[in-house]
Write a structure and sequence with these properties.
about 375 residues, mainly alpha, A middle domain of Talin 1, two-stranded antiparallel ribbon, 13 helices, about 0% strand, membrane
């Protein structure tokens, strides 16, 4: 027992998040030299891998679809804190940071994570299978949230520019939070079976892994370490953000690229977790992570930003531009065509990944 406890305490998934947080405390708020940026980046990568491990432990304990919610909600809550922190300290140039980061998160999850999951699932089984009822409902919710929060502000007339008036922002915040809460209630309650893995014939599979689930004590410890690892991920992402901004400026790239880079860093744990689930022939879990993350990113971020805007100076720019709306529309149409059959091949995975590549390229070269 003593040996087991000692091995647990010296396991890298325990040690790395704790050291990463210590490094975060030491480096927080300081201008970092190049060597320290490299050290922070290494601990950032280690914290990402540890977060994936602990999220999988918790997911195995609580089962699906609850397990898929753990990482999505945890990452999004800390992502909100990161956005608000950067907006407070960044001045006028961060007025569109919330929009850029949320839109990047939607494109990364709905094209990158979803496309990668389908690709890995199709490579394993030739055809990736999933439940179209649950996945379709999730996609419809993401589409509605994205349209209300990111498209409508471009066309409202109460304020000049792509921004909401205070009553409109309050409505969007309440609607976003309400829709997200309704989806979670449906996913974990009345229609839980719609979000469980299925076989090639569409029959719901037992979501439990072959190994025995961890004990409650181990799951609680992993949940705590998951939060610690995610704090380290987002904290280190903020620590290296000045270097990212300097690199973006030196390369003469649009400032919106900063939001894209931050979203890529923050979504690394979910990407790796979804890829692992797809390799284990649990494509539905991967899609739950992808669309659930997109939904949480909007449904939790917009209300939080709306509340924070009371103390933030300057306008809050949420409306997308023409190119971004075209990419969002392509993502929605392609997603519907992918989801409706409940089966996907390498082609659908490749199409979604190509949309992500187009987004990344146009973000850098608008």
């Amino acid at each position: 027992m003593v040996a087991t406890t000692r091995s647990r305490l010296t396991d890298w998934t325990v040690v790395v998040p704790l050291i990463a947080v210590l490094v975060l405390v030491v480096t927080w708020g300081r201008e970092l030299p190049a060597i320290m940026v490299l050290v922070v980046a290494l601990f950032l990568a280690g914290a990402v891998l540890a977060a994936v491990h602990h999220a999988e432990v918790v997911a195995h304990r609580v089962g699906e679809p609850f397990g898929s919610l753990v990482l999505a909600v945890a990452v999004t809550v800390i992502e909100v804190a990161l956005i608000v922190t950067l907006m407070i300290s960044g001045g006028d140039k961060t007025q569109a940071l919330a929009r850029d980061t949320v839109f990047a998160a939607v494109m990364i999850t709905c094209n990158g994570i979803l496309g990668l999951s389908l690709l890995l699932g199709a490579l394993r089984r030739r055809v990736a299978t999933f439940n179209p009822e649950g996945t379709g409902g999730a996609l419809a919710t993401v589409t509605t949230l994205a349209a209300l929060s990111l498209v409508v502000p471009t066309f409202t007339t109460s304020r000049p520019g792509p921004e909401f008036s205070p009553p409109q922002l309050a409505f969007a915040a309440v609607a976003s939070l309400g829709l997200y809460g309704l989806f979670v209630m449906v996913q974990t309650g009345r229609h839980r079976d719609y979000f469980l893995p299925v076989d090639n014939e569409g029959r719901v599979l037992d979501s439990a892994e072959h190994a025995d689930p961890p004990s409650g004590r181990a799951a609680v410890a992993s949940l705590a370490l998951l939060v610690i690892a995610l704090v380290a991920v987002v904290g280190h992402a903020k620590s290296v953000s000045p270097s990212i901004e300097a690199g973006v400026a030196a390369a003469n790239l649009p400032h919106g690229v900063v939001g894209v880079v931050i979203a890529l860093l923050v979504l690394l744990p979910e990407t790796l977790a979804a890829a692992r689930a797809a390799r284990r022939d649990r494509v539905q879990i991967s899609l739950n992570l992808a669309l659930g993350s997109a939904m949480a990113s909007i449904g939790l971020t917009i209300p939080a930003i709306a509340l924070a805007s009371i103390w933030l100076d300057g306008p809050l720019l949420l409306g997308l531009g023409g190119t971004q709306m075209v990419l969002l529309a392509l993502t929605v149409v392609t997603g519907v065509l992918t989801v409706v059959p409940g089966r996907a091949t390498l082609l659908q995975g490749g199409v979604h990944l190509s949309l992500l590549a187009a987004f990344l390229f146009l973000a850098a070269s608008p």
